[in-house]
Amino acid sequence: MQRRHLCLQMFALCLTVGASRPALAGRQIEEPLGDAVRTALSAAVAGAAPPEPVFMHASQRQDYLHWMQHADARLRRYLSHPLEREEFLQTLWYEARRAALSLSLVLGLVQVESAFRKFAVSSAGARGYMQVMPFWARTIGDGHDGHLFQLQANLRFGCVILRHYLDREGGDLFMALGRYNGSRGQHTYPRAVFAAQRQWLHEVD
Predict the structure, then answer these.
(1) How far is residue 157's CA from residue 205's CA, in Å, rounded to a whole number?
(2) What CATH number should be reported for the domain holding residue 26?
(3) Engineered SS bond to 111: which of 51, 73, 143, 196, CB 3.0-4.6 Å?
């Protein structure tokens, strides 16, 4: 009972901190989806398995460990606890790779969207690390937008949505980022993400 009470207190504190530092972005616009697209996106966000990287060769595992060390050093300014950083980076690696997205791109987007704050909430109501709008939970998820504060669920939705926008824009990352932000065709948001991405670049990207 005491542990549950402490968890609730920590959750409330995180929400308060998140509210005092509003998220920069998170304004995806709800658009009608064709049945085939909705089905594909629903399948893409379903069944979140534990994010355990699988390596076919020892060299791949070595690349992963080098990237973890590089990213961990930069992430310390945002997340102070080593285990929290490890869990976050392992999950981001898994979800970015699963969606065929650049690791540095996803890290740059998270930095711009939420500054790596798990309980960040934008003025538009977007939630979590990747500032996912609640309508996505209703459209392609199970309808429970509270799950968007969970680490893997948030990164899963964010990466799937960005991949969807990238495919819709024919691989044009500038336009896809604008669509993710709800500012398609404008320069401010994509430039901010690209600038942040450069800080996370690594040879395994």
Answers:
(1) 21
(2) 1.10.530.10
(3) 196
Give the number of other CB atoms < 10 A from CB of residue 96.
Answer: 23
Contacts by residues 161-165 (CB-CB < 8 Å, ≥ 24 positions apart): 161/28, 161/130, 161/132, 161/136, 162/99, 162/101, 162/106, 162/109, 162/130, 163/44, 163/99, 163/100, 163/101, 164/37, 164/41
pTM over 0.90: no
Residue 127 pairs with which residues in a beta bridge? 121, 132
Give a yes or no: residue 203 inside a domain.
no
Query: Is the CB of residue 176 less than 8 Å from the CB of residue 193?
Result: no
pLDDT band of residue 22 (cuts 50, 70, 90) is very low
pLDDT confidence of residue 132: 95
Percentage helix, strand, coil for the chain under 3-state DSSP, each rounded to 5: 60, 0, 35
Q: How many domains does the chain have?
A: 1
Task: For residue 132, list its beta bridge partners.
Answer: 127
With beta carbons less than 8 A apart as the criterion, state whether 64 and 128 touch: no
In a domain, 205, yes or no: no
Residue 17 domain-assigned (yes or no): yes
Within a domain: 204: no
Q: Which domain holds residue 46?
A: 2-198
What tokens does 55 get? 């390596």
pLDDT of residue 64: 96
* pLDDT one-digit tens code per residue, 64-91: 999 999 999 999 999 999 999 999 999 9
